[in-house]
């Protein structure tokens, strides 16, 4: 075997060994994935609470508790996505409340004053777009610190997306996981729904890190 042949053979062996080690490391760290994704900041007083879309009730319920505890004077409900069918219903005169509208109604019933609830116009398709929306809102309202409320496994990607979107704005975002999320990050592999959520979030987080997020 020539010198170049021996070099190529050695490189192949090293590549195989590195690949095996990467796979072994990934499997060794996988049990900690739930806690890794559940990255949140300590509670602190802020100018507003920004509730991300994506859950029926658990996120805005946390916002109601935090609001009542005196940590912020305002609750912003992300407008979320809109289906084309919803526009068709409105054109036909059908009243079809969106998730943010339902959340607002429930917040009012829980004692949150209407003046404290903000429903932005438009629609957002993903976490990156929600972060961009918050930058606009913070600029127009003069907010300097905002608490973003989401679910446990969504925390780390949320922190990354909002940090990127708010860079250079002078606005700081802290991330809060809702206490009404019943997921168990320490044992996420025991529940099928948690498994789907964690694996999906790991893929999305990688995409955001590589610059493919919204």
Written description of the protein model:
The chain is of the alpha/beta class and about 210 residues long. The protein has two domains: about 1-30; about 40-210, Rossmann fold (3-Layer(aba) Sandwich), CATH 3.40.50.620. Helix content is about 50%, strand content about 10%. The chain is built from eight helices and five strands; from the N terminus they run ααβαβααβαβαβα. A five-stranded parallel beta sheet has the order 3-2-1-4-5, sandwiched between helices. Helix 6 (about 125-140) crosses helix 7 and helix 7 (about 155-165) runs parallel beside helix 8 (about 190-210). The protein is globular. Mean pLDDT is about 90; it is low at about 20-25.
């Amino acid at each position: 075997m020539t010198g170049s042949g021996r070099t190529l053979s050695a490189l192949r062996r090293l590549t195989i060994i590195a690949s095996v080690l990467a796979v072994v490391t990934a499997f060794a760290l996988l049990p900690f994935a739930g806690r890794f994704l559940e990255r949140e900041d300590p509670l602190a007083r802020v100018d507003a609470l920004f509730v991300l879309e994506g859950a029926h009730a658990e996120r805005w319920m946390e916002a109601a508790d935090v609001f009542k505890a005196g940590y912020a004077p305002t609750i912003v409900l992300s407008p979320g996505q809109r289906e084309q069918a919803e526009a068709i219903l409105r054109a036909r005169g059908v009243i079809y409340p969106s998730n943010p509208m339902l959340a607002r109604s429930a917040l009012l019933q829980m004692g949150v004053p209407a003046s404290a609830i903000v429903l932005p116009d438009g629609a957002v398709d993903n976490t990156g777009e929600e972060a961009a929306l918050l930058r606009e809102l913070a600029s127009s309202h003069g907010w300097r610190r905002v608490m973003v409320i989401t679910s446990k496994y969504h925390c780390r990607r949320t922190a990354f997306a909002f940090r990127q979107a708010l860079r250079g704005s002078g606005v700081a975002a802290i991330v809060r996981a809702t206490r009404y999320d019943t997921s168990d990050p320490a044992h996420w592999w025991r529940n099928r729904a948690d498994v789907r959520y964690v694996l999906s979030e790991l893929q999305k987080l990688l995409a955001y890190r590589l610059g493919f997020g919204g």
